[in-house]
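Predict the 3D structure for this chain.
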Amino acid sequence: MEKVNLTALTGKIGITDTSLSPAGTALIDEKIYEVKTDGEFIEAGRGVRVIRVRGKKIIVKRV
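Done. Predicted structure below.
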């Protein structure tokens, strides 16, 4: 199984695959990841930026 360095995603831009309320999925670097916001709702199909990674949690913000 390939080990992925999620911290390398910090600063990357992606597109939400599902609505984030506050969790869901986003396409980042041609791969789907489970992501979460700091509480804001983001509709599917919106641009997001990875603002931080904590362990396996990827936190995004609307761009």
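The radius of gyration is 10 Å.
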